[in-house]
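tl;dr need the bound structure. longer version: we got a ligand (pyridoxal-5'-phosphate) that a collaborator sent over and nobodys looked at where it sits. i said id run it. heres the input, straight from their email, havent touched it
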Amino acid sequence: MFDSYWMPFTANRQFKHSPKTLTTAKGIYYQSSDGKKILDGISGLWCCNLGHARPEIADAVNKQILNLDYATAFQVGNEPAFKLANKLVELSNTSSATNHLKNVFFCNSGSEAVDTALKIALAYHKANGEPQRTILIGREKGYHGVGFGGMSVGGLENNKKQFLPLLSNVDHLPHLLDIEKNSFSKGMPKFGLDKLEYLEILVQKHGADKIAAVIVEPFSGSAGVIIPPLGYLEKLREITRKHGILLIFDEVISGFGRVGNLFAAQRWNVQPDMITMAKGLTNGVIPMGAVMIANYIHHKLMHGDQKYIELFHGYTYSGHPVASAAALACLDIYQKENLFTKAIELENYWQEQLHSLKDLPNVIDIRNIGLAGAIEFKPPHQDLSTLYAYNIFTNCFNNGLLVRHTGDIIALSPPLVINKSEIDLLISILKQALIFQACNIVD
Ligand SMILES: Cc1ncc(COP(=O)(O)O)c(C=O)c1O
């Protein structure tokens, strides 16, 4: 049964040696193929913020398929896509950080959203009379998906090394992980603002008028929940604005309630020129991504003879009516159940529970923000690197908890509908897995 499927971002041979499969899901629990109930500690993969099997989404999808299952978005429109774009703009309008984002471009994933935003940045500068602005700046340890654009601005070397060479018009800011100075910080750490000085060095190196855009995740999710220091995002905005450089926030993970607002930009009141999103937009039920774009960027591109296409970009499934219907149903649930702000309400409790694991063996850092967190380990032997967190992941899975392991890190992002006693359960399964792994090594 397992032979044909080449699984993504997976050690396929290791998986097929001891397969783990999920068969059903409801609320915050999965069921595995051997009948175990498994608490979803990572919202699927940072996407099922509303919990699983929500009937409201299922009904909306079902209704939409029977009504209009597909329509091209090239030169023909469909109602749900227009409604969804309006709804996203309406929701963004409530904050001064995002009330300038007046247009939405739809795609199917976070990777496509990132490549779309990078292309819009380049097209904007050309339309704005600055065609020489072509340099794109990302950040070390950043993850922006797997397209060639996103991979290039991304900063995870393992994701790039098999596919070199990538885009050459790219540079990177230093990453923000500093376990020596910031270990066990609660929320935003104190140290690291000085790392932004490197942006001025990059400006000197390339020339301010050559840089098109800086793209960052408000906090790095895939690299293991790396949170920027206090004041970093504000300062980043200040420097980019000073030099006429566009700022793109990749909110594929940080959006849709993960840090207590629709977007992380709103929490820290920073105005990006574009926001990329996916995942929580449709609760992971139907693939969909989007870019929200500042009115002045859109305006610049709506020029020239009206019969010509303004942006030669789009996907067969852009503004898919069924995905749009799913997203509209999701946004209704976020609003009705006050889930955009739920992570703020639970943040302190989540933080204290997570940091209660601080003194367990081999734990060298715990990081948290909103309803996200990570635990980093220093395995006692070099040859246990990666395997240490993998063993914890396996132990958790066998005992009823799904976590994400990456390198020597366990990452967590439970659904926003989790309650305090379920957080307790999550932490207790994780704690016994950490103790078991530590004891196993000592033995
Ligand atoms: C910040 C960020 N950008 C982009 C992506 C890529 O999204 P997708 O896997 O939907 O292409 C991810 C995926 O985790 C992400 O975390």
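gonna send this back to them w/ a short note. Residues 109-111, 114, 143-145, 217, 221-222, 250, 252-253, 278 surround pyridoxal-5'-phosphate (CB under 6 Å).
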